[in-house]
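Hi R.,

Here's the input for the IPE complex you asked about:
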Amino acid sequence: MIVKPSAPLEQLPSDLDCDRLPQHVAVIMDGNGRWAKERGLPRIMGHRRGVDTLKDLLRCCKDWGIGALTVYAFSTENWGRPMEEVQFLMTLFEQVLRRELAEMIAEKVRIRFVGNLTALPASLQREIARSMEDTQENKEVQFTVATNYGGRQEIVQACRAIAHKVKTGELEADAIDEALFERHLYTHELSSPDLLIRTSGEMRISNFLLWQMAYAEIYVTSIGWPDFDREAFHQALLDYQKRDRRFGKVR
Ligand code: IPE
Ligand code: IPE
Ligand code: MG
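And here is the predicted structure with IPE in place:
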């Protein structure tokens, strides 16, 4: 995670209101493949560059006082990609985790992985478990990586867990409400995202955080993920601060 150690700590841009920042930002990091193709490079080079973007964004959240960042790294549908690309991504996740864990600990970042983690390669699962355990006391930034994640899959597994409790008598069916349901989601320790950013222009959610997005403000930029820098994030936050979040009420 986090940009090179020599990077200066940057203040919040003066045109942003520190009292109206989103507390939780979610990102669909899209467009790595197109970014690479436009430069005559293999798709995997886009994924590699995307890691640098993510490091800087995480650093930026810490510098600017945004307490939670959740990113979509691999969807339940992404298994359908060519085997070489899937294998590259799994290896990349593991290498990056191994390489960046010490810095995450030093920077007081808490990392969590959400998704169906048991289907990931065993060596990656071990790195994931280690990183979650070693950062569990950290409070600077709550950094969540959705890996083998699908919003529908998350909802189905929550239903299954609840149904099981009803069957064994641990829970009354009538006790199921929104709060209880939320406690069975992978994201149960986090608030819902205030802002969803999608890079590379597609106007869709692609099965990301379906339940949690109920009242997220959506920001789509045409910038490809490898080029999404601090200035692009600044623009997203400026746009967010212009929104009137009514939550179904009237002013
Ligand atoms: C997002 O970039 C990264 C992952 C899904 C892992 P893509 O790989 O989807 O890039 P495009 O959308 O094909 O350009
Ligand atoms: C969403 O991007 C998944 C991730 C960013 C990990 P995709 O590239 O997989 O989504 P679609 O295919 O454009 O909907
Ligand atoms: Mg894509």
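One thing worth noting: The longest helix spans residues 83-106.

Cheers,
M.
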